[in-house]
Amino acid sequence: FSYLNFVIFSSYTAIGQVSLDTRLGCVTGDVNTETKRIIEAINTFFWTVAEVELRMPIWRFYRTKAYKRYIEALDTFTELCMDNINRAMEKIAQDPTIKCEENISLLERIVEKTGNPKIAAILAMDLFLVGVDTTSVAVTSTIYQLSQNPEKQDILVRELEKVLPKKTSPVDIQTLENMPYLRACIKETLRMYPVTIANGRSLQSDAIISGYHIPKGTHIIFSHLAASNSDEYFPEPYRFIPERWIKRGEMDVSDCPYAGQLIHPFVSLPFGYGRRMCIGRRFAEAELQILLSKLFRKYQVEYNYGKLTYKVMPTYYPEQELKFKLTERLN
């Protein structure tokens, strides 16, 4: 059993339901040939994207093997997305039920507003290609940090027991709003282990940064992995201290000297910023909070196999096999 693969398949299922209005069957094991092709296309994209987009663009002059596989994967994925979207729209058109606003799917909203299923396919592509590995690694890293800091896990569980009285209690919008410590745990994890180690931008105008004149068109890289793990901005940067993200009045963290301190708004940007900010940020945050809240409300989590180390591929990915021990809580 691969824990990380399970989380990845959970992400496939969630994104498929949201963007394609289709259950892909990844968690239940009911995976058909079409779903396998979608997963294979996404995997091929990740195996080739670094070589095609981050290395010398030889493919501009010679169609390399990686470039051919990259384009083939994107074409396959687009075709399969359109097939699923068309089937979903036919099914919706045949349903005479008048739905209330909250029950209208994202796919329906996009097609109704634009009249163009291809826009829905583009959104699905964005969510699948950048929302599966990233969300899965973020979940994994947060679970790992809480397993290595049992006192923080205990604080989180006490919070969850208040908002989720039973292990089977549903998670809704109001519940999510009352989980400040869980949000802080996620923020602190993404500070220490951002799923992408840097953001790149092409300057649209001349700029002066720290006294240096940088001309328009220059490609610049902001390494938030380095900045967010610097003691210039975060005291004890290599310690997992979620309390530093708690706002005054959210909960009692008076015993933490770093609680309530001002944090530079641009020093930790796991989702990017501005017009190029992650399009699926809100969906990813909700997915993280729901999965983690249900997991820790039901189980005590341990990891007894040493320290996790990470590598770039192209997300910031754990190198070791994940072997979490889950012990069901009594209450």
Automatic annotation (TrEMBL):
Binding site for heme: 278
Keyword Repeat tagged: no
Family matches, as PANTHER family: CYTOCHROME P450
Name the UniProt record assigns to this protein: Cytochrome P450
UniProt similarity note: Belongs to the cytochrome P450 family.
Keyword Repeat: no
Lineage: Eukaryota, Metazoa, Ecdysozoa, Arthropoda, Hexapoda
Alphabetized GO MF terms: heme binding; iron ion binding; monooxygenase activity; oxidoreductase activity, acting on paired donors, with incorporation or reduction of molecular oxygen
PROSITE patterns documented for this protein: CYTOCHROME_P450
Cited InterPro entries: CYP11_CYP27_families, Cyt_P450, Cyt_P450_CS, Cyt_P450_E_grp-I, Cyt_P450_sf
UniProt keyword terms in alphabetical order: Heme, Iron, Metal-binding, Monooxygenase, Oxidoreductase
Known cofactor(s): heme
Pfam families referenced in this protein's UniProt entry, alphabetically: p450
